[in-house]
Specification:
heterodimer; A: 317 residues; mainly alpha; ABC transporter involved in vitamin B12 uptake, BtuC; two-stranded antiparallel ribbon; 12 helices; 4 strands; B: 236 residues; alpha/beta; Rossmann fold; six-stranded mixed sheet; 26% strand; globular; binds adenosine-5'-diphosphate; binds magnesium ion; transmembrane helix (chain A)
């Protein structure tokens, strides 16, 4: 155990953790929203993220963007981001909505038991991952280096990089926007109402199918944004099974924060990201994925409903 | 007739809860549906609102067959319900609950006017606009549920046991308010176990027993009916 190393690298580990955690949080939103409304763990959500990544990659390739970030002027960087985010968010949202339409809605109309939904979710996840796997020959694809990470400002020992600032800012903005939408808009109230009491919502004139469509759409958009941000990180590689680990972690983050709770997703994501990176400092990189799930299990022993523990319906979002 | 139910059958799985009931509600009326626990009153209300499918028979509203219409469309057509028990959204404030009642409407000015009308009927709610419904008393939540149904500006208001769990003084009050709402032009179908109160304020009433309508008549007729007295009014 390398306590000195953790202390030495504490600022960097924290910031990297927040950066990665922010992305977990964005993906976690999709799990939490769908769970809040349908009480369903949409395991195929990890593939929604993966497809967003490939959509951005293929769009960039199609448009002939170069891999060299250093030479690229700001204008072409912004254009690449804009194109990338439209492609990723669009493809992810479309995937999410299609999964709902093709896999879950028919089950809902037949009043299928929860187990049928569960196995369908797992099945949809496999179909999408394997489909892309076959199509891409299961190879990893390096993402265009849109941005060279560099320190943009320093506060004592805390060095903030451009990617960290972008990822964290975008995530917080997306969170605030969603929070406002859910708590203030008419459709947002509809989402909360269905999450809380579907029958009474129907008595109010809420169209449940539309609300369900909406949460898949929002979850997909957020996963697409997350996919793009993930690609901006130095890790950026697209692979057919990339969704698995991130999806699992995002799901863990959602449970950690209290599944069904939007703010819980943010809290859980950030916490998980930071904890993982402290584990890297303490025990080495190999322990990164181990620690996240130990954290989850231990926390659930003490707070079975997660940190914030309320449902989407009850949350004064 | 505003509402015509013909030979309606509703089942939960293989168990039939309503065995072909027929009833009508005319425009401007207060019609009560009384019956013991488990008779099928709530099932009837849920079927009218469309959150329970029909196994047979039909529901007509303003002459149109709505038996297959989606629940949310029925609200647009003019049917609102205050459901049995605490049907409020507990995590939402009083204002948000009322706004949920107006979910299908877009006329901002009308919604504001109706909200004030609800506050007029239930001054208690006006004092608690920002309070989260889940923290209010049972009586207050009941008022909120009734007020929320009014926010849809319905032609037909379905009230499923609005007096349940209320203190005797509040029971009087809520029945007075139901009459007042009716006098403002809203047709009311009222489900009650409190038969005495319901019958004395209703134009007409039906008695439901284990999924069948066994009697109907004007409120006064049923109040004076000896078998009704024995079974539901609990008086000698
Ligand atoms: N969700 C349900 N599943 C199965 N049976 C039900 C359900 N709801 C009601 N029932 C049955 O239907 C019958 C009528 O119930 P209900 O309409 O709630 O009666 P009431 O409102 O008059 O008390 C009862 O026998 C009840 O047990
Ligand atoms: Mg009942």
């Amino acid at each position: 155990m390398d306590v000195a190393g953790l202390l030495r690298d504490f600022p960097e580990l924290t910031l990297t953790g927040l950066e990665q955690g922010a992305i977990y949080a964005l993906v976690a939103l999709g799990y939490t929203l769908v769970y809040g409304v349908l009480k369903l763990i949409n395991f195929a959500h990890s593939e929604v993220f993966m497809i967003g990544s490939f959509a951005a990659l293929w769009t960039w390739q199609g448009l002939g963007f170069v891999y060299d970030a250093e030479a690229a002027p700001l204008g072409s960087f912004l254009l690449a981001v804009l194109v990338g985010v439209i492609a990723a968010a669009g493809a992810s949202a479309l995937t999410a909505v299609t999964i709902e339409r093709v896999a879950y809605r028919p089950l809902r109309k037949r009043n299928a038991p929860p187990l049928a939904f569960l196995i369908t979710a797992i099945g949809a996840s496999f179909v999408l991952a394997e489909g892309i796997g076959v199509y891409t020959h299961r190879a990893p694809y390096g993402m265009p280096r849109l941005l060279q990470p560099e320190v943009v400002f320093q506060l004592g020992g805390w060095k903030f990089t451009n990617t960290q600032l972008i990822v964290i800012t975008v995530t917080l903005l997306a969170m605030v926007a969603l929070d406002q939408f859910v708590s203030r808009s008419r459709l947002g109230r509809g989402i909360r109402a269905v999450a809380q009491d579907p029958d009474t919502s129907a008595l109010m004139g809420v169209n449940k199918d539309r609300v369900i469509f909406l949460v898949f759409l929002i979850g997909g958009l957020m996963a697409g944004v997350a996919a793009l941000l993930w690609n901006i990180l130095p890790i950026g590689v697209a692979k057919f099974n990339m969704g698995f680990l991130i999806g699992l972690k995002a799901f863990a983050a959602a449970v950690l924060g209290g599944i069904g709770n939007l703010r819980g997703a943010l809290l859980g994501g950030l916490l998980l990201g930071v904890a993982e990176n402290y584990a890297v400092g303490l025990f080495g990189t190999d322990w990164k994925d181990f620690v996240g799930f130990v954290l989850l299990v231990v926390l659930l022993m003490f707070r079975p409903t997660g940190l914030l523990g309320e449902s989407l319906g009850r949350a004064r979002a | 007739m505003l509402l015509e139910i013909e030979n309606m059958t509703v089942a939960y799985g293989r168990i039939e809860a309503l065995h072909g009931i027929s009833l009508t509600v005319g425009e401007g009326e207060i019609v009560s549906l009384i019956g013991a626990n488990g008779a099928g009153k709530t099932t009837t209300m849920r079927a009218i609102s469309g959150i329970r499918p029909l196994a047979g028979g039909s529901i007509r509203f303003e002459g149109e067959d709505i038996s297959k219409l989606r629940a949310d469309r029925r609200v647009v057509q003019g049917i609102a319900q205050s459901p049995e028990g605490r049907g409020c959204f507990p995590g939402m404030t009083v204002v948000e609950n009322l706004e949920m009642g107006a979910y299908t409407r877009r006329d901002k000015a009308g919604i504001t006017a109706d909200m004030n009308r609800v506050y007029g009927l239930f001054p208690r709610l006006a004092e608690r606009k920002k309070q989260v419904a889940g923290t209010m008393s049972g009586g207050e939540q009941q008022m909120l549920a009734v007020g929320r149904a009014l926010m849809a500006r319905p032609k037909l208001l379905l009230l499923d046991e609005p007096s349940m769990g209320l203190a005797p003084m509040l029971i009087q009050q809520i029945f007075d308010i139901i009459v007042e709402i009716n006098q403002q032009g809203v047709t009311v179908l009222l489900v009650e176990q409190n038969a005495q109160q319901a019958l004395s304020r209703s134009h007409r009433a039906y008695v439901l027993e284990t999924g069948r309508i066994v009697k109907s008549g004007t409120g006064q007729e049923l109040l004076n009916d000896s078998s009704i007295k024995d079974a539901y009014l609990g008086v000698a």
